[in-house]
Design a protein that fits this description.
6-stranded antiparallel β-sheet, alpha+beta, 2 domains, 4-stranded antiparallel β-sheet, Jelly Rolls, 236 residues, Arc Repressor Mutant, subunit A
């Protein structure tokens, strides 16, 4: 499996994470099974060839919502994909629909938001002028925050205001969303660590290695050590 990412430029990093491509290649038996892990984003995906199944057969173009648990995917040999990984509030602005309706599920993009067909350069869909200034400021505060208390301070909003906004716009509480983001950052950097897993846990705000181990079991279905040897982008 060949997975590649192009990171969003810094000026739109609060709107999008990256564009990506996936080429499954040859697989014994004609199918590959992979697990997608939570990353705090919504994915707009176009399948160039082959077939894909997440619960049920997926169409050529679909949107995958924020996931709060590992999602098992079946991908046919030779299947290829182009994807755009965006923040939930960006999806809301692009599509006019609330990402809370997509939690742990996918929808046919041509039905839900037909104007969002992915171009060859998926990041070209995103512009710095996509959101109003207040939402830009909040998005930047969210991606920079490590805890709800940190978000309260950075955003200048009350805990109650943030709770209501996340419920309306995202579909999960702010603490849950920040937990998903922390896991994704921890997961993404596993292959780059030079120290111990305990050091990695401490660097990402976990109480200890056991705390990180519990998160990995819940969010990826496997241990951090196994994930380190098998991770390919957000996939296992």
């Amino acid at each position: 499996m060949d997975y590649r990412e192009v990171a969003a430029p810094p000026e739109i990093a609060h709107l999008a994470s990256c564009a990506w491509t996936l080429d499954v290649g040859d697989e014994p038996g004609g199918w590959a099974t992979h697990v997608a892990t939570p990353d705090g984003c919504v994915e707009i995906i176009r399948r160039v060839s082959g077939r894909s199944i997440w619960g049920s057969e997926q169409p050529k173009s679909f949107v995958a919502g924020l996931i709060t648990r590992p999602a098992q995917l079946r991908l046919s040999a030779g299947s290829r994909f182009i994807g755009l990984r965006i923040r939930p509030w960006t999806w809301n602005a692009l599509s006019g629909t609330a990402s809370r309706h997509l939690i742990d599920s996918w929808r046919d993009l041509d039905t839900l938001a037909p104007a969002l067909a992915l171009p060859e350069d998926p990041l070209s869909l995103i512009s710095a002028g996509l959101l109003d200034p207040a939402k830009h400021a909040l998005g930047k505060a969210i991606v920079a925050s490590s805890s709800v208390a940190d978000l309260v301070q950075r955003s200048g909003r009350s805990p109650r205001w943030l709770q209501r906004w996340f419920e309306r716009e995202i579909g999960v509480p702010p603490s849950t969303y920040l937990r998903l983001v922390r896991f994704n950052e921890t997961f993404a950097e596993l292959g780059q660590i030079s120290g111990t897993l305990a050091d990695h846990a401490a660097a990402h705000g976990f109480a200890d290695q056991a705390h990180m181990a519990r998160e990995f079991r819940e969010m990826s279905g496997t241990s951090a050590a196994k994930a380190k040897s098998r991770a390919l982008g957000p996939f296992l």
